[in-house]
Each structure stands twice: as structure tokens, then as C-alpha cells.
Amino acid sequence: MKVLVLIFDFDGVIIPTKGLIGVALKYFKKYFNIQVTEEGIAKGVSSLSGGTFAEAYQKALRLFVPGYDEERDKEKAERCYQEINEERAAIYKGTEVFPEVVDVLQRLSKNFHLIISSGLERTYIEEVLTKNGIINLFEAIYSVVEDGGKERHIQMVRESYPGKKILIIGDATLEMQLGVPAIGMARNSSQEQPLRMAGAKAVINSLNGILDLDLDSL
């Protein structure tokens, strides 16, 4: 079956990753005095997939904060969540896309339906795409914050493009396991093996690499 729909993760594929694990760690330590390391949080991130960002945040509290009680700690958790979101927005403000992105997406848009699936807020994604003159290349932008987890994004794409073959491009192992063929983005060589082990049909180190692949054979 011919590939007709390409779904792109945003953070790490279209724009540089900004180290949000470190942001969460800082505020978890501030509000809950936990001693978990950044490596420890990274190992638990895979269990936070699905649902909205707020739901993932609640899962993280239960996972990383010993004795966390949703009712007792509600006010503290809300303040922590607000500060994480504020710094998250500040970190990403003004972020540029990777150098090759505009040209590659313009070329791909001639033959494929392009979709964004991201954990970031839609308004931010739209701002970056508009700034770079490529927002019109995308037919839909799905955000975990507003639309639920990436499994839901896949379902929504299937409903919008019934019978069409879908391919996803992402830099996280989770995205290799969503029930559609996946291309792993390993901008750092240490990412390649985990992506392949998670089921990536191919691994590239920049978006240019997708132009060299026979997408229909994946």
C-alpha cells in the first residue's frame, strides 16, 4: 500500500528538544523535596504516555513523589504544575526549526498529507510553523494537551484518512509502538539502538534522511 499520510512529532524532529525533564525535576524538588535524579525521571517517562499533559503530570506525581495524596497535596501540586508550564512556555519561546526542515517539508507536501502530533500546546506549534512560513503545509495539528495521547492522534488520523497508509516520524521509543510503521529520528547516535529495538522500520539522523527512503516499502 502506498504511503499517503506522514505524521511528525514536533519536539526533536521539527525543533530541538529543550530538556523538559530537567524542568520537571527542579519543581518536583522545590515543592515535594524529592531526591529523584534526572536519569530516574527519564526512565519513568514511558509510563506517562496517553491522556493530556495534565493527566501525565498527575501520573508523574504518583510515580515520583513518595506518599503523594491527591486531595492533601492538591494546592501544592497546582502551584508546581503552574510553574512547570510557565517555564516550559518560556523555554520554547522563539525556538527555530532545524535548518533542513523547511525545504524537506515543502518537498514532501507535494506528495503526502502532513500532520503534526506533539506533546506541546497547539498555539505554540502554530506560532513556530507560522514564523517559518510552513503552517499551510500541515493539514492537522494534534496536541497531547488538547487532544489526548498519541494513540488518540493515530485514531483521529485514521478516521480522517480512511484506508490510507500512515507513517509516523518521531524521536521517542513510544512513537515506534503506536501500531503504524515508524521512522526513528536519532539526531544523537545514542538514540539509534533504542529506536530500532522499539520497532523503528528505519532510523535517520536528520529530516533530510527521509528523502532517501523508499517509504512505500516500510
Provide keyphrases for this structure.
218 residues; alpha/beta; Rossmann fold; 2 domains; six-stranded parallel sheet; 9 helices; 41% helix; globular
What does it look like?
The chain has a 6-stranded parallel β-sheet with strand order 3-2-1-4-5-6, sandwiched between helices. The chain is an alpha/beta fold and 218 residues long. The N and C termini lie close together (10 Å). The model has no long low-confidence stretch (mean pLDDT 86). Helix content is 41%, strand content 14%. The protein contains 9 helices and 6 strands, in the order βαααααβαβααββαβ.
* Percentage of residues in DSSP E strands: 5-15%
Domain module count: 2
Q: What does the main sheet amount to?
A: 6 strands, parallel
The SSE string, one letter per element, is EHHHHHEHEHHEEHE
Oligomer status: single chain
* Class computed from helices, strands and strand pairing: alpha/beta
First-residue to last-residue Cα separation: 10 Å
Would you identify the regions where 5 or more consecutive residues have pLDDT less than 50?
A: none
Task: Spell out the blueprint of helices and strands.
Elements (H helix, E strand, L loop, with lengths): L2 E6 L11 H13 L5 H7 L8 H12 L9 H19 L8 H8 L4 E6 L3 H10 L6 E6 H4 L2 H11 L4 E6 L11 E4 L6 H6 L4 E3 L14
Produce a short descriptive summary:
The protein has nine helices and six strands, in the order E-H-H-H-H-H-E-H-E-H-H-E-E-H-E.
